[in-house]
Specification:
Elements (H helix, E strand, L loop, with lengths): L29 E3 L2 H13 L3 E7 L5 H11 L6 E7 L19 H11 L4 E3 L11 H6 L7 H6 L17 H4 L3 H16 L3 E5 L3 H13 L5 E5 L19 H22 L5 H14 L3 E9 L12 E10 L2 E10 L3
Helix pairs in contact: 7-8, 9-10
Bound molecules: adenosine monophosphate.
The site of adenosine monophosphate (AMP) has 17 residues, from helix 2 and strand 5.
Length: 336
């Protein structure tokens, strides 16, 4: 059903790009901003016998996001009602991070979603937190990027979901409030929408694993689907933040996907020493002008670091190119 445009570098691990013109006719999704209205909408769809699938996003949609919608549409043999959420979650950004400059284009997003013909509703809440009296104080420092000031005021949001071990390494090490913010807001979306299925991208590999563990530990009756990374034709993992890369930075950033492919090729040939592999990737990224945040080789499910590749692992990378922090990863299984 989907037109395939394989990425030359990573064709065996990437999702096909989707030609939505071959799918259903364009159809405007219903835009819902109110939590109670969203919950009522979802319950009506379930009463009609539909499977409700949710695709959480922060907007500024690209083909990576649209591939998640494709996975949602295929999630059940029953008719699927698809909700895409668009919400830039303030609590996952630390004060020093890029909340204020995070790209957005709601009208453009709606056009893209309509073009798929399969999205039934867009949930775009104005805010998912009870704002406390400390809000004004928090706002004076610039963008409201963390809710801690409001917690201190005593009457705002103060309940958080933490996935204690999985949230610590990799992105959690350099973004200490990130997974707390993600897990909390995803829990709220699950409570409001009450979906049967939720789709997350493996592009944010640690986030996907954090959500899987949260769903297991807290008994959410929701199937979590992990969807493959969608890349530009030259291998760069699609990301809303790529728009902030200069042409030169974008060219340099290709070293991320290239070094991951080289590492996988090497591992499949027997170069399985993780220290050597990580050093090589760090060296390559640094030589091309990147500033490495981390390179880790971890077990796919537990995210525990390994010293030798001898089972299913994933190499995860975060690196800065200019002012843009990019993440990417590649799964490897030397036994398969
Ligand atoms: P974001 O809007 O960046 O928060 O991403 C929303 C969802 O889209 C997350 O589950 C991401 O992992 C997923 N996603 C973002 N970029 C890609 C990509 N290039 N390929 C697949 N999924 C992606």
């Amino acid at each position: 059903m989907h037109a395939v445009s394989p990425c030359p570098l990573l064709s065996d691990s990437s999702s096909p790009l989707i030609d939505w013109t071959t799918m259903a006719a364009p159809r405007e999704p219903e835009v819902i901003r109110d939590k109670a209205a969203m919950r009522a909408w979802s319950r009506r769809r379930r009463a009609e016998g539909k499977t409700v699938a949710v695709v959480p996003t922060m907007g500024y949609l690209h083909q990576g996001h649209l591939s998640l919608i494709s996975a949602a549409a295929a999630a059940s043999a029953d008719p699927v009602a698809i909700v895409v959420t668009i919400y830039v979650n303030p609590s996952q950004f630390a004060p020093s991070e890029d909340l204020a400059t995070y790209p957005s284009d709601f009208a453009g997003d709606l056009r893209k979603l309509a073009s798929t013909g399969v999205v039934d509703a867009v949930f775009n809440p104005p805010d998912l937190y009870v704002r406390g009296a400390g809000r004004r104080a928090a706002a004076t420092g610039g963008a409201i990027s963390c809710l801690e000031e409001e917690e201190a005021a005593g009457d705002g949001h103060e309940t958080w979901v933490r996935v204690e071990r999985l949230e610590k390494g990799m992105c959690g090490a350099s973004r200490p409030v990130f997974f707390r913010g993600v897990a909390t807001i995803v829990s709220k979306l699950f409570n409001i929408i009450e979906p049967d299925v939720a789709v997350f991208g493996k592009k944010d590999y640690q986030q996907w694993r954090v959500i899987c563990r949260m769903v297991r530990d807290l008994d959410f009756a929701i199937e979590i689907i992990g969807s493959e990374i969608v890349r530009e034709a030259d291998g760069l993992a699609m990301s809303s933040r790529n728009v902030h890369l200069s042409r030169e930075e974008r060219e340099k950033a290709l070293s991320i996907s290239r070094s991951l492919v080289d590492a996988r090729t090497g591992a499949l040939k027997g170069n399985t020493d993780c220290k050597q592999i990580k050093n090589k990737i760090v060296q390559t990224l640094t030589e091309t002008g990147g500033q490495v945040d981390y390179v880790e080789i971890v077990e796919q499910e537990s995210l525990v670091p390994v010293e030798q590749i001898d089972g299913p692992v994933v190499i995860c990378v975060a690196a800065w190119f200019g002012k843009v922090r990019l993440i990417d990863n590649i799964e490897i299984d030397t036994r398969s």
